[in-house]
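Lab meeting notes turned into a lecture example. A postdoc, R.K., suggested we walk through two folding results consecutively so the class can see how the record format repeats. The first protein's sequence and structure tokens come next.
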Amino acid sequence: MKKITFLIIALLSVVVISMTAKQAVPTFSKAGYFEVANVERQVWNFNVGWRFYKGAQEGAEMTEFVDSAWQVVNCPHGLEYISDIASGSNNYQGEVWYRKHFTLDNALKGKVNKLVFEGVMGKCKIWLNGELLTEHFGGYLPIIVNLDKNVNWDGDNVIAVWTDNSDDPSYPPGKSQKQLDFVYFGGMYRDVWLTSTAQTYITNANEVDKVAGGGVFVHVDVPSDNEALINLNIDIQNDGKKASSGLAEVSLLNPDGELVKKSKAKYAVAALASQTLQLTMKVKNPRLWSPQSPDLYTIEIRLLNRKKAIDGVAVKTGLRKIEMKGKDGLYLNNKLYPGKLMGANRHQDHAVVGNALPNMGQWEDALLLKNAGCDIIRAAHYPADPAFMDACDALGIFFIVATPGWQFWNDNPAFEQYVISDIRNMVRRDRNHPSVIMWEPILNETHYPDYFAEKVHNTVHEEYPYQGAFTACDKRAKGQQYFDVIYVQPYRDFFNKYIKDTPANRKEQAFAYDKEKRCIFTREWGDCVDDWASHNSPSRVARNWGERAQLIQAKHYADPENYLFPCWETFYDTPRQHIGGAIWHSYDHQRGYHPHPFYGGITDIYRQPKYSYYMFASQRNVDDGYDPMVYIAHEMTPFSEPDVTVFSNCEEVRLIVYGQDTLTQNVADLHKKMPHHPVVFKDVYDFMDVKEMSRHRGRYDISLVAEGLIDGKVVARQVRKPALRPRKIELHIQSAALPLVANGSDFITVVASITDADGNVKRLDESYIKFEVEGEGQIIGNSEIMTNPRKLEWGTAPVLIRSTLNAGEITVKASVLDEGANQPLSGTITFSSVPDSDKFIYSEIGGEPKSNEHQETQTDVEELQLKIRQLEQEVNDLKIKEVERQQQEFQ
């Protein structure tokens, strides 16, 4: 066993779960590539300063159109801020306009200047100075336009974007939002970049229409532990009127940034033509990529002309080899993958902002799931943001890429052409990511023509004609025989108290293992609804429903002895052939067809963990380098269960009750299949005992203490105490490990809790909290969508704080809405945003709407008032103790 670093968690109600000792630093690609220093190619952040109008506007594409009354916003941008319960199709669907005024430096004249939109929801048209550049259908893949023919080099330019997220069956997904299990939140909701290159440059695979070509295509083979082969295809375009020639120089940097290999190849490209170079690099003793060791190499490619670097791009890749060996299971880097590949599905929406999640928020999503034991994510049901893909690579999360589609088919041939185009472009965009393990080109849960399955399977392999490309499809779908991996549920979910173990039922499911030759994965597990319309389920639990509901959900996801359906225990009782599964769903998310959000996530829509999150996190093995952890799923309230459930990844769990009774459970003695089964200590809590002990405060240790032991030593510890009188508001940053970037788009979640004097959270407090901010930050949302002020739910109230373009200090204050002498004291938290390394092009700056809720805090008067209230509270405490003493005398 590896050396264990002792981790003593002495927090009262917070458990810190860290991924590994080595934490990846967030870095993001821009317009399809990572940047290379000292080359002519330049990339600007084009997110800032768009004028926005919700509705139709005649003539808004024209340069002379007056837009001075329009709101100024920054991208990523949704059409509106949404309430926490934004399901039921209450979001805006319709036309909107964006316009941006900008100038370009004359030094860029003669260059190739393009805009790259990472995602615009729905159908859109883009104009520059009144001239239509392109029309696009679909909301999840890049749009690239060339600006050079229409740029005004002597003054103002206007880029105008019309977009419409209305229902439209002509392109995928195609289904009406009112019957859709997610939401078409609209807008320019991903990044916008401006690139400038020399006339000879490396192309973007999503712009050039080349099968298995365009851009940079990286394919890795790992013949042995001691050797890896990197095969490169580099597409070079010459937009000049003369032939261009020189050297392509390729540098390979190891995960520490050290040069380990350099290759060169000559290029010679005719005017207005392209050329593809092919190179192979051999790496000795490579550091292989895996979820446990997500080491990334950097490939820097420079085009040299007379020793001048006229272009350059970088690609990050992992040296890894994936094999699906049917009944022998999943092999990674020539070895059987240890255990099961467990994870979650993920929709992209977030509280308040909808789909407009900035890059650091994408990284936070990936990190949160990684820390929860998720080593695989399935896209639901469209390609993810490029920043999320970058995070999966760096954090070690396998990813299943899905084409846009959900329970809908249109017989019009144009619809099929859009589907095929989406498949080609999703492969071209994501083919270099080491995190990609499968491609799902089929339309989710859709009845399509008989020939279609073979066609989409072949399309993927045409675009990725090498080892390591695996298509996936449901076993019961048409044409399933063409696909490389099959989606099937584990058979054990049929054999429980609700469905008899009959020969017919066994035959229905056993084919997955008895007859199937391919590897099997479960695309969605964990849900259990009474019917599709109602969706009542023990897995669908809003966080604010409290302790018992959350505990039921966590047990449901852990073991079939508690409820129905596949779960951790089920998967670990399947053969190698069944390589794993993804829970439906990672986070609570909004839905078009149902009036309530989906509540089956292991966190809420703000990414605040539920008990099930900690159950997932406890499946991380200490031997794989993860920290030991222990979590008490019990709040010691008057309504808490007699049983105390503890989640831990340790060998043994010890529970100390009230400082007197010590109970111990060795996890191996539970005889379970899953890595770390929850430990339940029966009938150890009774609030009447707590009540009696509290009358004699100081004589008893009124607490539950859980300790995790490995090799007989305590390596993790948590203390839980009942929350007493509300005294103060405490604030914390939900993802404190990640910086807030001063780019006008990034935001963080600040969470307020009402606690007692010792910091124990009052879970049952339902006070209203109002937030104020000063410095280089702005509050997202307002009272109209009930985000500020907002009611405490399960003891917490989150608020989103957006950065400005200026790095600096930010102070957030939280107080109860109706302050009084005996109300909890207000709380503050101060932190700083960090400068952005991006270069920006803008003439205006977007920001949050001003209101009387955005006030400056921490004036001298307020500080004095706070001190006075603290003194008053101390005096009141003495008076309350006297009242308590008098009550006890008469009992």
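The second example is placed directly after the first for contrast:
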Amino acid sequence: MYKYIRFFDTITLQDIPVVGGKNASLGELYTNLTKKNVKVPYGFAITADAYREYISKNKVDAVIQEELSKINIQDYESLNEGAGRIRAGIQYGEMPEAIQEEIYEAYTSLNYADGSYSEVAVRSSATAEDLPHASFAGQQDTYLNIRGRRNLVSCCKQVFASLFTDRAISYRAHHQFDHKQVALSIVVQKMVRSDLACSGVMFTIDTESGFDQVIYITAGYGLGENIVQGAINPDEYYAFKPAIKNNRQNPILKKQLGTKQLRMIYTQEHTAGHSTKNVTVHPHEQNEFALQDNEIVLLAQYGLAIEEHYSIMHGKKIAMDIEWAKDGIDGQLYVVQARPETVKSRQSKQFYQKFTLASHGEVLTEGKSVGEKIASGNTRLILSIEDMDQLQQGEILVTDITDPDWEPVLKRAAGIITNRGGRTCHAAIIARELGIPAIVGCNNATSLLQDTTPVTISCAEGDTGRVYKGIIPFSVENFDLSTLSKTKTKLMVNIGNPQIAMQISQLPVDGVGLARLEFIITNSIRVHPKALIEFDSLDEYTKYRIEKITSGYSNPKDFYIEKLTEGISTIAAAFYPRPTIVRLSDFKSNEYASLVGGDRYEPKEENPMLGFRGASRYYSDQFIQCFELECEAIRRARTAVGLENIIPMIPFARTVEECSKVISLMEKFGLKRGKDALEIYLMCELPSNAILADRFLELVDGFSIGSNDLTQLTLGVDRDSGLLRGFDERDEAVKTLVSMAIKSCLKNKKYIGICGQAPSDYPEFTTFLVENNITSISLNPDSVFTMKKLINSLELSKNKQND
């Protein structure tokens, strides 16, 4: 029926040469994923043949060829002028009548039931676009909320011309695509009125670490352009794929509130051109999440269904980059685009690269880290795109935001720093493609950083990227994971920061030997749990501080449980199904006092190291309500998210009776040993734990030796004091107690590991542990490769001796 039109339900991925990558993907989605309840707005493609016919009829071929031959890609002025002449030659042509009539007829078929014209989005779809090895996102123009036949045709001519924007020409040249081999199809798709609701981007992979068991979602109010351009700092959500597949009660791992200061809306109802503007979002809305939990879960289900479909088609795992929008009229969530992710999913899993700063200096500003690298150089402060050509090779670009028009010069940068934006903004996407670090959403970078200032930018410290003053030396280590043999002695890691869990989980380890709650409480919660419980009785200033921290949550107590659950779940999910041993809180009174509201509840002790800490806190009148919240967080992570690899561990239990009391309390608060395969471990860190090991082991399923405290309490040395030196875990008395604990656990067929610092520091202590047949050794991440080789060598030697 049509020569130049293909409707979505007649298109699949096989049609890229005819309708381009974006249309082919939309057709694939509509034809196959709507059956699986993924909502995709209907529409049609104007084929690449229509573009070729348009160019031919208007005799633009010669202009294109002549101008391309004269353009110097390295010269921004030459590129800008040549591209402008090509676009002018295209957009002022006449649409051939046959093509125009088909566009009119296809558009009419999308009319509302009353016969009125529908609003549509008009986008480019290049025949070399959104391929598994290249993403052309943002290279051509998009027009939204278009209504009326003439307006539609006018937009189509502008989209044709956008095949030759500066950024598109530069990108094709950079990736060695022949300009003559790329044609342009056009997407015409029913509008989703996200200007009245929200929109965002979703990846089926963690964009920084490449961890592939999560769905990562960003959200902001209004049209999605603000997120893509980096004009706002969006909300961020992570959902856990196994929990989605198993229909768990709550597959959401974590939520992070973005500022979302701007909302992009339409300036008028219907127009033929760009018709949007930004309005300020009310502070109350900024402090609320753009998506409800059920909507996060639904989007994650969409993402998983799309990834599974594309993976089956390609015969291998294909991570996806997906755009979504919520319609403010019908309240439904829609997928408006999906393409293969082209950076992290292509990196080899065989090699592990680690960047480490030699020291830490003054932090000039912070933002969200993109990638895991470090770079240094002089800053180049550019406040206007008109001046972008000032950027020199090897400089650190400092600007407000970037958009696709910056593409021609960004390849010169050693790193990027922006005021605004999240991890799915243009600056972040380009930084990943170029393999350079970027720090986005700093808020104040352009006001704090001067031009030509030496800085070091570090994205190797978790979610937070830091800009350090001066040039700080750093090292880069490359490890070939295929060269490391598996050891009988399990190798695990100590971790406190959930932000680095997905990266660290890629190390060749058997799980987490120690996950510390203290880091989560200090960095994510920042408030004393008792202050959250007794919020109504606090003074006004403390209430004000807490309200700022707990924005987006229904009440302070729920905030504590949810943030603790998020931190625990993120670590456990990163290593799932490998065991994750989570030590219950072991703050000392002086550490708790430093939290917001903490000085109201904490005693002043002469030696907090030996005072009100560990197990003795949990059943005390002062802390029992706080401990209940802690247990609830672990219970939720295990049951609602399905992370049954979590093993809670009790610290600093001085007596068997105290340990028994805590076990009973945990059962009362929903953590019953043995139920749902729940195991409970005990930190073996007091001499009493080793001496009475058999009795303690009647109550728990294993020990993890805390060698730091065990050394302190065996030798009478305060490890907070710097006056006494020369006392460490290698002392014979300490080793005797460690040996006793190992033997008791092996005899009782219980788990026995160690999570103290000693194995990382002293190879000879590691030798002692292996000789005593310890089950596992948990190390700091930076020691894993060295210690794995050492343990492998020790085990080979031991086997030879036994032979």
